[in-house]
Amino acid sequence: RKECRGPVGLSVAKGRLEWTNWSLEQAEGHVEGLYADVGQGQRGEDGRAAGGPRSMPMFSGEDQRLVEAIEGDMLTVSTGVTFDDIASLDAAKGLLNEAVVLPLLMPDFFTGLREPWKGVLLFGPPGTGKTMLAKAVAGVAGVCFFNCSSATLTSRFRGESEKLVKCLFHMAAHYAPSIIFFDEVDALASSRGDEGEHEASRRFKSELLSHMDGISSPSGRSGEVGKTVMVLGTTNCPWDLDEALRRRLEKRIYIPLPDLAARTQMLQVLLKTVKVAEEVCFESLAEQMQGYSGADIRLICRDAAMMPMRRLVAKKSPAEILELKRTGQLDSIDTSLTLGDLTKALKKSSPSVGAGETHKYAKWDSDFGSC
Ligand code: ADP
């Protein structure tokens, strides 16, 4: 059912697939046995799809090519991101836990009145951690993640995006529990409809909407354990979003620019693997970063983190550095990141989000946001 990229395998115990540390060869025999036991594409006792990609019975020929392309370009079994990698944003993490993680883990509890949202939208200025949050949700829930960016859809799947959506939702159900993630969803389904809109884009949109209705219909979710598919989208331009899609992305969570506490925590998270001089006070640096996004702060930290190395290279040739390394003397040279490094990097940069733009997000949040 899952792709294996390391020394892992699957074992079958009491009708369940379990991760083991077997080699692929060892696991292969067992998976073959499993195919024989439950039949191609049927479901095991726990309701999960059994068998690998090749066992998907609903696709053949041309569509099988799409299945393979989606598996290659979009499907991630483990995103490797957790909430701990993301500084601050506690409210958003809490909401995502409730709106996405728990319904994926406990589908039998989220029925009736507690039925999960059709879709969840993360909106806010660029570089505030929306994509990271979406990946962390999949990481925390331990579910398959279909990452559909507008760039992949328009370049890789140009002209077949309608077919692709159909295939994508079928696959998401097959691999369920799973998340379908649309990065920059406004670019895929914008409100710039009318005459200017391309026919293919219109068809893509209506296909997307009908599948979103499908997964949230009682028969689509059916309360079957492990069968939940969630749709998650992000946008930097929520006002450009197609209205019908906006209505289906029922839970809309604002991810704003980081406040002082968030910026301080971000500096701590980003610089946790770097030797930092004692003189550096994260909070006073964060005060000077008002209006900077997480991505801006990351760039400043990256630039500053290179400065101790640049100082060393200015004094020593590569051959001398190699010799220091060989004789074990390199570790005794101070390569700490100084306050001067960070201040210099900060002065060279400017916030990527204009001051006026934040009002636009706050206004959209008060008009359409869920929180
Ligand atoms: P968005 O999707 O909102 O445009 P991303 O999630 O792609 O932003 O974030 C861009 C980069 O900024 C990330 O790779 C990460 O390094 C950094 N970043 C942004 N917000 C945070 C955060 N809250 N904690 C840690 N890093 C962050």
What topology emerges from the helices and strands here?
Layout: E1 9-13, E2 16-20, H1 24-38, H2 61-73, E3 75-76, H3 90-105, E4 119-123, H4 130-141, E5 144-149, H5 150-155, H6 161-174, E6 178-183, H7 185-188, H8 199-216, H9 218-221, E7 229-235, H10 243-248, E8 251-254, H11 260-270, H12 282-287, H13 294-315, H14 318-326, H15 339-348, H16 357-368
Parallel strand pairs: 4-7, 4-8, 5-6, 6-7
Antiparallel strand pairs: 1-2, 3-5
Helix pairs in contact: 2-6, 3-4, 6-8, 11-13, 13-15
Bound molecules: adenosine-5'-diphosphate (ADP).
Tags for this model:
ATP hydrolysis activity, 11% strand, alpha/beta, AAA+ ATPase domain-containing protein, 371 residues, 6-stranded mixed β-sheet, ATP binding, binds adenosine-5'-diphosphate
Word description of this protein:
This protein is α/β, with parallel strands linked by helices. The protein contains 16 helices and eight strands. It has helices spanning 24-38, 61-73, 90-105, 130-141, 150-155, 161-174, 185-188, 199-216, 218-221, 243-248, 260-270, 282-287, 294-315, 318-326, 339-348, 357-368, and strands at 9-13, 16-20, 75-76, 119-123, 144-149, 178-183, 229-235, 251-254. Strand 1 and strand 2 (16-20) form a beta hairpin. Helix 2 (61-73) packs across helix 6 (161-174) and helix 11 crosses helix 13. It binds adenosine-5'-diphosphate (ADP).
